[in-house]
Amino acid sequence: MSSDRVRYDRATAHLDAPLAVVDLGAFDANAADLVRRARGKPVRVASKSVRCRALLERVLARDGFAGVMGYTLEESLWLARSGVPDVLLAYPSADRAGFAELTSDPKLARAVTVMVDDPAQLAVVDAARAGREEVRVCLEFDVSLRLLGGRVRVGALRSPLHVPERLAELARAVARRPGFRLVGLMAYEAHVAGVGDAVGGRPVHSGAVRLMQSVARSRLEALRAEAVAAVRDVAELEFVNGGGTGSVQHTAAEDVVTEVAAGSGLYVPRLFDHYSSFRGRPAALFALPVVRRPGVGVVTVLGGGYPASGAAGRDRLPAPYLPAGLRLAPREGAGEVQTPLLGQAADDLLIGDKVWFRHAKAGELCERFAALHLVDGERVVETAPTYRGEGRTFL
């Protein structure tokens, strides 16, 4: 870790902090590991976890990656206009202007697939139509773990479709409706892919998560297979998508799954330190400058209040990474304008020195910075705009 700090400091010596970097060596190693864990099935890269077109292009140029998973219709159309030929919008949309554009442009209609889990979403598309282009549709199936006859539910609150029969009903509704074509099925196991099972200092919690995930995985394969069979009775499917960074190897092992999704595993933010099944290399970091030395064992850096989305808690805060041995002040946390840091390592820092941090999540870091400085060894080899740097703030 100390050698990484030397590299990053040397690479960015000509740049003032705050700034953000992506270590290309770590990024590429993480990409290779995702492909290895996918066992020959293509990895669809989740754009919300990258939010930088240059890095999306870099990973899509690698063998083993195919297609983008977008997070808003506006973003999906933007990516398709810029040349991405296959964008799966992973969340339903109510963007009327976007649907008007999609239904009137053959190139966009070929490239973008929209997500549906309710007939009312189809009505939104029809009400916004400005052309006759056929809309490609993917259905989302809920694979949350349900116990005690459904009275206990573990998983993200996403699609209302959790039994194959209801999924088939919606598939038939899509098939009957002019102007739509059912092409895909997505079933995302958030309780497996997005929950760490090896949280330091919490052995009981980690053991409970491992038990839950073991039970969930034992049921997932059969449930997903039933869902796919139900939909294929209605329409031929081009793809069946599942998984996420934390479950790539398990999801890819299922016969009915044709592709897996991943994105956070490229940057490896803090929340992905807590998995027993894989180890990634932190690739995305941000640096803040030391601007005060209030006393022994304390420095203050400029900025830092970049919490991640999700249920509020300390695990959603960024954490000082390099130099090792620094920690947030318990009563202040990561501040809006300044952040005090405690620890013996503070006494070796001077005004103007950089402290390197890791964000709790992946792509959300890019909403705070206009550019990512791409580091190869001890050099910045490219400065790439983030979505924000291109003037795009989709959410």
Explain briefly what this protein structure is.
GO terms for molecular function: D-serine ammonia-lyase activity. This protein is of the alpha/beta class.
Number of domains: 2
Overall pLDDT, averaged?
Answer: 94
The CATH homologous superfamily name of the largest domain equals Alanine racemase
Which of globular, elongated, flat, extended, rod-shaped describes the shape?
Answer: globular
Helix content: 25-40%
**How would a textbook summarize the main sheet?**
9 strands, mixed
CATH topology of the largest domain: TIM Barrel
Distance N to C terminus: 34 Å
Query: What is the radius of gyration computed over CA atoms, rounded to a whole number of angstroms?
Result: 22 Å
Strand segment count: 19
Q: Uncertain spans, ≥5 residues at pLDDT below 50? A: none
Q: How much of the sequence is in beta strands?
A: 15-25%
Given the structure, what is the number of helices?
12
- CATH architecture grouping of the largest domain: Alpha-Beta Barrel
Descriptive account of the structure:
30% of the residues lie in helices and 25% in strands. The model has no long low-confidence stretch (mean pLDDT 94). The protein has helices at 2-11, 24-37, 53-60, 73-81, 96-102, 106-111, 119-128, 164-176, 190-193, 203-232, 248-252, 264-267, and strands at 19-23, 43-46, 65-70, 87-89, 112-116, 135-140, 145-147, 152-154, 180-187, 239-242, 259-262, 284-295, 298-302, 319-322, 327-328, 338-342, 354-358, 371-376, 379-385. It folds into 2 domains: 24-268, Alanine racemase (TIM Barrel, Alpha-Beta Barrel), CATH 3.20.20; 284-387, D-serine dehydratase-like domain (Lyase, Ornithine Decarboxylase, Chain A, domain 1), CATH 2.40.37.20. With 395 residues, the chain is of the alpha/beta class.
